[in-house]
Specification:
Layout (H helix, E strand, L loop, with lengths): L1 H23 L6 E2 L2 E4 L3 E2 L1 E6 L2 E4 L4 E3 L9 E7 L1 E5 L2 E3 L6 E3 L4 E7 L2 E4 L3 E5 L2 E7 L2 E4 L3 E5 L4 E7 L2 E4 L2 E5 L2 E7 L2 E4 L3 E5 L2 E7 L2 E4 L3 E5 L2 E7 L9 E5 L4 E4 L1 E3 L2 E2 L2 E4 L7 E5 L9 E8 L6 E3 L2 E6 L2 E11 L2 E11 L1 H22 L1 H5 L18 E12 L4 E15 L2 E14 L4 E5 L3 E9 L6 E19 L8 E21 L4 E16 L2 E2 L8 E2 L2 E17 L4 E17 L22 E14 L2 E11 L6 E12 L1
Parallel strand pairs: 1-4, 2-5, 3-6, 4-7, 5-8, 6-9, 7-10, 8-11, 9-12, 10-13, 11-14, 12-15, 13-16, 14-17, 15-18, 16-19, 17-20, 18-21, 19-22, 20-23, 21-24, 22-25, 23-26, 25-27, 26-28, 27-31, 28-32, 31-33, 32-34
Antiparallel strand pairs: 29-30, 33-37, 35-36, 36-37, 38-39, 38-52, 39-40, 40-42, 41-43, 42-43, 43-44, 44-45, 45-48, 46-47, 48-49, 49-50, 50-51, 51-52
Length: about 650
């Protein structure tokens, strides 16, 4: 009787335990393209569809079905998936999270625990854009994270712990960026084993192999930045293929990266450098930054210059003994004086050259440049002109070749309108200054004449505008760096001209004129790129109000040929320009751009018109003028063909 009751109680107890397990660990509600927050524990989560967003709350566990034979979370046919784990994802054997080849995870964030038994914790065969770990990813078996041959991971950022028995991270596929500020460890083999490709690997944390080596690289690592070493007396150990680029990170004289290479095969040479976040002490030797390399293993980087702010330090990589290499840093040099000189000698002339170059916009519809006008009309009152223009600025030599299209329409015998399109198809500039059109030069005009034959008074209103892309190079002076920046230069002008035409002789018409122009040339602010201490430059705005007084003439030389020209003086009655104010290094000076500014400038032109047949005319104009800055001059030639319709 007692035995029978014991057996009955045992059966009841087993049934209660089984029921209790099913209550505590019911099947998860699958997610298919929807948002789901898990606040209670469950088993076997499947994710499919587009834009699924899954959050596992703290204290919640998602595990596998069947005591370890399946996956806790499985993904298939997904796109744009987001998974945030604040709780626990676990399996006793295979995979805690498996991303199939047909699936894409946009963001996988672990703030809790993801663990597995005999196989791998996270297995990726598909695509993961960003994997962020601030918690723990661990496996008692093979690997904590496996990126298979077909797998791609954009960025892995680890500030927590990634650990396993054999490999903390096993990469067979492609990882673009790997950043470790936490711990990646393995008990028996390698913290990281790579037979695929890793783009940039930055280690500011710890790679801890209990059994053997931190990194086994049989694939490729393009750039490895490392600060692990001296401070903790735990240098990174690496075997087989060398990274293409190795940059040491120096935090202090006792805290800097060290690496020991051995059993080198595959890629047998690297480029050595110092990471841009480093802090170097002057006149200091950082011992054993590299170990296990001969000079033939170092393709480049045995010497260089490190610039931070206004400080420059020259350094060398010195073979101290055997296969050990020390980083030897020289005395500190202040680059501020030479940088000031480079701004004055390189940037200032380039800014002035850009402003002078865009005087073509401000001059194009001025009184002396009536060539961007179309006044030959046929029965339909339409005028069309097509031409080419060559412009040259002296010292330094700058050349521009352009095509020009001008159109006009006669509204009445005394009123007409016009517009032009000017496109530069080539710029020849100094090596330190390049230009290209961002937009063509365009403009319009309206002209009133007192008489249909254009004698007497004429009033013209016109405008022009253009934007150009500019690349400015700050050249090296002494200890300064080369700097390169890109910006946009824009010019706008508005012109009013009044002239009076009278018959001086049977063959000659004279036209004294007076014109006024308001113009703005603006260079956008920009910051240099590609150097250690880039300078930033402010917006430069050049404003002017200018008057011009002169005389035009037109002389008939024959039935078809006439000679034309102009002589004038332009004078800026108001002018202002911002100072060049570089920043980025303390102690830099502002630079005035008004040195040798020329307020009064002569302008002359000479050309011809040749009537090929009725309403068809071939014309050419040569022009010479002084420019506002640094006694520069501009010469240009314009050849164009006009048809009246």
């Amino acid at each position: 009787m007692i035995i029978y009751n014991f057996r009955a109680y045992k059966k009841i107890l087993l049934i209660l335990c089984f029921c209790s397990y099913r209550v505590l660990a019911a099947d998860c509600e699958d997610v298919n393209g929807n948002t789901k927050i898990f606040s209670t524990s469950c088993t076997d989560l499947d994710i499919t569809g587009d834009s699924s967003n899954v959050t596992i709350n703290s204290g919640v566990t998602i595990d596998e079905t069947g005591g370890g034979s399946s996956t806790a979370i499985g993904l298939s046919d997904t796109t744009n998936t987001t998974i945030t784990n604040n709780g626990t994802i676990s399996t006793s054997q295979k995979w805690a999270l498996r991303n199939n080849g047909t699936s894409t995870i946009t963001n996988l964030t672990n703030n809790g625990t993801i663990s597995a038994g005999s196989t791998s914790t996270i297995r990726n065969i598909g695509s993961i854009t960003t994997l962020t770990n601030t918690g723990t990813i661990s496996a008692t078996g093979d690997s904590a994270i496996v990126n298979n041959a077909a797998g791609t991971i954009g960025t892995i950022t680890n500030s927590g712990t990634i650990s396993a028995n054999r490999y903390g991270l096993k990469n067979v596929g492609t990882i673009t960026t790997l950043s470790n500020s936490g711990t990646i460890s393995a008990d028996s083999n390698y913290a990281i084993t790579n037979t695929g490709s890793i783009g940039t690997f930055t280690n500011t944390g710890t790679l801890t192999p209990t059994g053997a080596t931190a990194i086994s690289n049989q694939g490729s690592i393009t750039t490895f930045n490392n600060s692990q070493g001296k401070s903790g007396s735990n240098p990174v150990t690496s075997i087989k293929s060398l990274p293409t680029n190795y940059n040491v990170i120096v935090n202090s004289t006792s805290d800097y990266g060290q690496i020991e290479f051995s059993s080198i095969s595959g890629n047998t040479s690297l480029n050595f450098g110092i990471h841009s976040t480093s802090t170097l002490a002057e006149s200091t030797t950082y011992s054993s930054v590299l170990s296990g390399l001969s000079s033939s293993n170092i393709a480049s980087g045995t010497s260089g210059t490190y610039v931070s702010g206004s400080s420059r330090k020259d350094w060398t990589l010195t073979n101290s003994s055997g296969s050990l290499w020390d980083l030897v840093v020289g005395a500190e040099q202040d680059i501020t004086p030479d940088t000031n000189t480079s701004v004055t000698s390189s940037v200032k002339p380039n800014v002035i050259l850009g402003i002078n170059n865009l005087t073509s916009v401000t001059e194009v519809n001025f009184a002396n440049m009536n060539t961007y006008d179309c006044d030959l009309f046929g029965k339909k009152n339409i005028c069309l002109s097509l031409g080419g223009r060559y412009t040259s600025i002296n010292t330094p030599k700058t050349e521009t070749n352009s095509t020009v299209l001008v159109g006009g329409y006669k509204l009445s015998d005394t009123l007409r309108v016009g517009a032009f399109y000017h496109s530069n198809f080539s710029h020849k500039t100094p090596a330190s200054f390049t230009l290209s059109d961002k937009t063509p030069m365009t403009g319009g005009l309206i002209v009133w004449n007192q008489n249909p034959n254009h004698l007497g008074y004429q009033l013209k209103l016109a405008n022009a505008q253009q934007q150009k892309n500019a690349t400015l190079v700050r050249e090296v002076v002494g200890t300064s760096e080369e700097g390169k920046g890109q910006t946009v230069i824009e010019a706008k002008s508005y012109v009013t001209e009044l002239q009076y035409g009278y018959q001086y002789s049977d063959d000659t018409v004279l036209r004294p004129y007076f014109a006024a122009r308001s113009a703005v040339i603006k260079q956008d602010a920009y910051t240099e790129t590609g150097n250690s201490s880039p300078l930033s430059f402010n917006e430069i705005k050049d404003k002017s109000t200018t008057v011009l007084l002169g005389l035009k003439f037109n002389t008939t030389l024959g039935i078809k040929l006439s000679l034309k020209g102009s002589l004038g003086i332009e004078h800026d009655i108001e002018h202002s320009i911002d100072k060049l104010a570089p920043t980025g290094i303390s102690g830099l000076s502002t630079v005035s751009l008004t040195d040798s500014f020329n307020k009064t400038r002569p302008v002359v032109s000479l050309g011809f018109d040749y009537a090929l047949k009725p309403n068809h005319r071939l014309s050419a104009v040569l022009q010479y003028q002084e420019l506002p800055y640094q006694s520069k001059t501009e010469s240009n030639a314009y050849l164009y063909y006009t048809i009246g319709f």
